[in-house]
Structure formats: C-alpha cells, structure tokens
Specification:
Layout: H1 2-29, H2 33-44, H3 53-63, H4 68-80, E1 91-94, E2 102-103, H5 104-108, E3 118-123, E4 130-134, H6 142-148, H7 154-187
C-alpha cells in the first residue's frame, strides 16, 4: 500500500510540475514580444552576450525545445514591426538576412548555400506566424523544410509552391527580356 501511495505521489508531483510549466508558458505568451525576449534572455543567461542566430536557436532548442518557434516568431515581429492582421498574401522573413518580410516566392528563392542555419518566419493571411529552421546542407529552402516536416496542410503548401514558381517565371521572363532587348535593337 505504501508503494502505491509513493507511486501516486510521484505521479501527482509530475502532473503538478507539468501544469506549472504550462501555466508559465501561457503567461509568457501573454507578454509583449519585448518582454518575452527579455525574459527568455534572462532564463538563458544571455545578459550582454553577443551570440549568432545559429548559437541562439540551438541554445533555445537544447533547453526549451517547445519555445523555438515562439522565439523566432517574436524575433521576426520585433525586428520587422509586422502587423499580422494586415497580411494579405504569403510573406516570409529570413532571419539574419537584413530584409523585411518579403513575398513568399522572393524570400524562398534566396541562395542559402553559404548559411550554417536558415531560420525563417512565414506570415499567411488570417493565420498565426509559423517559424522554422533548417540546415541548408540537408534542406534546399524553407518551402522544402515546411513540406518535409509536415508543417502545413497540402492545399497551403501547393499555394506557396505556386507563389514560388510564379516568382521564378517572372525572374526568367525578366532575364530573357534583358538579354533579348539588345539583340532585337541590333536587328532593327
């Protein structure tokens, strides 16, 4: 009987600990983005440290893996002043590139080969932000990461792929026009 009480007490302690952790996470979500980042910096012991994006993402992932997406979402919102309620087309922010949120097709077309880690945040109309990260040696671009990890429903993935392909076609048309214009002028 004593063993049953010990087992149930341990189980209840585990449940209570989990509920406290969930309550803390809920409170953090209600904070402003700046308060969230400041608290995470304190929890991670990052006061006055100059870490790369790669180091920060991997540190958060190793200590609080459930917070990586929230961390990237908040960083993107703070760094770009994005108004999520004003998003009317798919936009994406590539962390550490120095760009604001861009049309999805443009952001997905960047060259990621020289990066150690690619962290991105996706903004879709009427949906919460979606963030992720990947190693460019294993994954080609954010759309590939979203698909590989089943982050979005198939119709949404297909729509994003169409945005990306349209961007690639526009780039190709533009390049063709620039190349062919001098040839056409010479023949006139």
């Amino acid at each position: 009987m004593q063993e049953v009480h010990q087992t149930s007490a341990t189980f209840l302690d585990h449940i209570e600990s989990h509920l406290e952790k969930m309550h803390t996470l809920e409170q953090e979500k209600e904070q402003s983005p700046l308060e969230y980042i400041e608290q995470l910096d304190r929890r991670m012991g990052w006061k006055d440290t100059d870490l790369t994006l790669y180091e920060r993402v991997h540190a958060v992932q190793s200590v609080f893996p459930e917070e990586v997406e929230s961390y990237l979402n908040v960083k993107a919102a703070l760094e770009t002043n994005l108004k999520v309620d004003r998003v009317d087309e798919p936009l994406m922010y590539i962390h550490g590139k120095g760009f604001e949120f861009q049309q999805f097709g443009i952001a997905n077309s960047h060259d990621f080969n020289d990066e150690t880690l690619v962290a991105y945040t996706l903004a879709l109309p009427n949906q919460p932000l979606i963030s992720g990260h990947f190693d460019p040696e294993k994954t080609v671009h954010p759309l590939h990461d979203l698909e590989k990890n089943n982050r979005l429903e198939k119709p949404t993935l297909e729509a994003l792929e169409e945005h990306w392909h349209n961007t690639l076609l526009e780039d190709e048309k533009s390049l063709f026009s620039k190349r062919s214009a001098p040839l056409i002028e010479r023949h006139l």
